[in-house]
Write a structure and sequence with these properties.
Layout: H1 2-29, H2 33-44, E1 54-59, H3 61-67, H4 74-84, E2 93-96, H5 107-120, E3 123-138, E4 141-153, H6 157-160, E5 164-167, E6 177-178, E7 180-182, E8 184-187, E9 191-194, H7 196-208, E10 222-224, E11 235-239, H8 240-244, E12 257-262, E13 270-273, E14 276-282, H9 283-296, E15 301-302, H10 305-323, H11 328-353, E16 355-356, H12 361-392, H13 398-407, E17 415-429, H14 431-437, H15 440-460, E18 464-469, E19 472-477, H16 486-512, E20 517-534, E21 537-543, H17 545-555, E22 561-565, H18 566-572, E23 576-580, E24 596-602
Parallel strand pairs: 1-11, 1-12, 2-3, 2-12, 3-5, 6-13, 15-16, 20-22
Antiparallel strand pairs: 3-4, 7-10, 8-9, 13-14, 17-19, 17-20, 18-19, 20-21, 22-24, 23-24
Helix pairs in contact: 1-10, 4-5, 7-9, 10-12, 11-12, 15-16
Length: 604
Amino acid sequence: MKNKKKTDKLLKNIIALLVAAAFTLVAASGLLDAWDNTVSDVLYQRRQATDGEILVLGIDRKALEELGPMPWPRSVMADVISILNSAEEKPSVIAIDVLYIGESADSDSDAYLAAAAENGRNVVTASAASFGSDIVVSDSSFLVDKRSVQAYDRPYEALENVTATGHINTMADADGVIRHALLYVDVPESGRVQSFSRTIYEKYCEAENLEPAPSPTTKDGFFYIPYTGKSGAYYDYISVADICDGSIPPDFFAGKIVLIGPYAPGLQDEYRTSIDHAVPIYGVEIQANLVDAFRRGFFPQEASQNLQLVALFIISFFMLLFFYDRKILQALAGEVLVCLLALLICHVLYMKGGVVLHVLWIPLFVSVLFVVSVALNYIGAQRERRMVENTFGHYVDPAVMKQLLEQGTSALELGGKIYDIAVLFVDIRGFTTMSETLDPPTVVEIINSYLTLTTQCIMKNHGTLDKFVGDCTMAFWNAPVPQEDSVYLACCAAMDMVEGSKALGEELQRRFGRSVSFGIGVNWGPAVVGNIGAPHRMDYTAIGDTVNTAARLEANAPGGTILISRAVADMLGDRAKVTSLGDSIKLKGKAEGYEILTLDELVR
């Protein structure tokens, strides 16, 4: 038994290890990244109120209608810069999210734009790198650099010399959603170029005499974006056209960070972001969010992938062991608790510690374990139910069967337990002589009628039918589940058999010219009850002196008589009328003075 339990425990641990390893491999493979990113976006990205220090000046539909389609003459942007800087207090930064690459055909416009930017000394312009794959030779080995800068588009020289420049490269994740920003680009022969947003922020700190917060820690230059606002968060419906026609006074922008960029659908500068998958936002708004992130100094860092995989493995392993053979309500409570706790930890670590975890992993895999475990436990319970029913269904009362089903396969384990039981033996008197004078089919019919009667009497009184041995029937009460007043039930069955044998005897006399009567013995005492035998061939039975004594009482009982022990008579008390035979009948294995009684009548 101990070895079996050890084997079962070892098997459960091995299965749990294999399942946890499989879950970990699935998570590590990236198959869940799209779903995990979506769930993580919902938990981590929360819209916050902006403080009004960052404003988006849109190259919107109104501007396109009034100033013409893009690209505009560079003099238009020069006018906008000049107007914005004409106030007594000019903007802290004017950032232009438009590429002005190379000199145009209108040299006067080029010079005018450069002069306007130089005059304001607060302008940030955009540049862009083009990436591709390249082979890098290192220590006699070849590596493929998939993010090699193939080209770098910068503002024309006159404008670049009088402005601060940052790259506007934006790279989406595999699902097309912008979750990360590129802090810098290493340009061959030019060195490291900071991002457009970081350059704006540092320009803002310079104008406001502030110490810039440290740059976020990055992996290959990428860092997680904690968005502040969705589409429209920084846009107050102010168009570039409103500046050009004087609708908005320039002092409205005093001390602000002004970002000028495309804000119309046809300009192909819209992106899906982690703060809102449904409604895209414009590139200039992404830049505004990044500037706000630099100002807040909140840069969440994604936790180590390996550590998260280890945590997933451990939790999956122990949760599978927890769910194994667990009742459904307990399993459900555990599943809900672990999932809620995992989500809470993700939220708290993000808000308080700036740590980004995989939100989906633990709730998903724990829920999968819960569903599968419930299904397997149900299948196992049904299998156990069938095993118990197959073992006991033909010889156990339905009320007893119900309790056995609650015990499950523990009732089927090899071995026994000591119970105090009431044991009944019943046998046909004169059967051997009768069988010698009748043909075999008739004998079989008579024995089946007898066994049917005894079985019905046992089941009617909630007994356990142990076995048929030839023309003898054995039954017991108070095992495998405790029963109230088990001795009384056994004696009721005995009385029913005596009464039933009268009608059966009359029918057999009429049909076959032969009659039968029963000799019955009932005893009460301790016995070993359980599955006795070998693992592949066992019988559920009772053994011990109590059983042997009941069999000897039956063997000495004349037809139509019920012999009981003093223990049975004492249990019945005044509910029965008995006649003591003293020790007139000698039972094998019993000392002198063993009292035997006949059960004459039973109060019902």
